[in-house]
Amino acid sequence: EEESSILTLTDENGEDINFEYLDCIEYNGVEHLVLMPEDSDDIVILEVQPVDEENENYLAVESEEILDAVYGIFKERYKDILQFED
After folding, report:
1. pTM: predicted TM-score of the whole model, two decimal places
2. In angstroms, what CA-CA distances link 82 with 7, 16, 57, 78, 79?
3. Which residue from 11, 83, 14 is spatially nearest to 46, judged by alpha carbons?
4. Fewest beta carbons less than 10 Å away: which of 62, 70, 75, 86?
5. What is the mean pLDDT of residues 60-76?
């Protein structure tokens, strides 16, 4: 049985939110995290922005085109494992 990875991120209000790490997908030379909030079935896609060698920031993706592209790659990778509702 595979163990899931939980990431705890702090939002703009200073509140900690737990996410299940699903994948990291590179799109147009930028890494994107694909996460699922612990209390939801929604998918969250965040852009990884390196700060230095040890730290990185995670930014909300504003572009519908990028969100659709990254989600499409994710769905293709996991089509035989997960069921998706469109």
Report:
1. 0.84
2. 21, 27, 28, 6, 6
3. 11
4. 86
5. 95
Residue in 59, 79, 81, 72 with CA at minimum distance from that of residue 27: 72
Both tokens of 20, joined, read 């299940």
Give the span between the Cα atoms of 45 and 56, in whole angstroms: 15
Rounded-to-integer distance, Cα 86 and Cα 38, Å? 21
How is the chain classified by DSSP, letter by letter?
Answer: -PPPEEEEEE-TTS-EEEEEEEEEEEETTEEEEEEEETT-S--EEEEEEE-SSS-EEEEE---HHHHHHHHHHHHHHTTTT-----
Model confidence pLDDT, tens digit, residues 14-62: 999 999 999 999 999 999 999 999 988 889 999 999 899 888 999 999 9
Rg of the chain's alpha carbons, rounded to an integer?
A: 13
Tokens of 81: 């494992």
